[in-house]
Amino acid sequence: MTIAAPSPSGIAALVDDNLAPRGIFAVIFSFLRRQPVGAIGITLVLIFGLAGVFANWLAPYNPTSNDFSAMTEAPSWAHWLGTDQLGRDLFSRILFGARTAFIVGLTAAFVGGVTGLVLGVGSAYFGGPVDLWLQRVLDIVMAFPLIIMALVVVSIFGTGLQNVILAITIPLIPRCARVVRSSALAIREVPYVDAARALGFGHIRIILRHMVPNVMGPFLVIITAFVGQAILAEAALSYLGLGVQEPVPAWGLMLQGGAEEYATTAPWIAVFPGLAIMLTVFGINLFGDSLRDELDPKLRDR
User: The domain that contains 247 carries what CATH number?
Assistant: First the structure.
């Protein structure tokens, strides 16, 4: 019996396209093509993110200037989304509010995520008493809901943009550390980590070269979730009067600043900031879910 040798074209067909080096734009395009829901999410995020970045050029009015002759004016050509109870243009304030939301969301998510990454990987790698005591401290912090812990931190350090970022960052650290630790515990037992120890590599090199790169999948997914949580927490704190303070434009402040009093006479004061928060967080969650599906081999192969 003779066995036919596979043709070169057949061999090429067996090569996984994902193994070939691709540029960043090719990777992005491939992700958007396979994850249309993620494309919708990232589009929403980019719209509001770019609106915040270019708010100085896109806003038709100064977001902090009052015009008492145009108080609670309905949406019109002069004011596309209407004005609030002080005559401030809502469209301009939403644009600048997007800047505030993304500054808080991205900074808190990045700082909290990176700190949690370091603690989670280090806890899993060293194990023993280090892992035991560190996890008990993180359990204490995680015992409090995010918004409650943020309220405690704000009550101690006071209000303001920097303190709001700190208040939201602290509760995010243990949540990231626990997720990263669960992945790092399995990686710690693989043969190449034992081989690195046998070759005499230092702890820092083993953690950075062999463990951190292998937990980046769940880390990136949880970072995207943290951005949405941080934006919601900032809006909640500002709504309660414990977050960003006037005259800084913030979506939570726009909901808090008399919106309840004008719910029937000028509903646009609350509707449009609420829609901005909803669409931004919705877009972030869509992108995060699609990123999880893309990075998880079990879900990607379905």
Answer: 1.10.3720.10
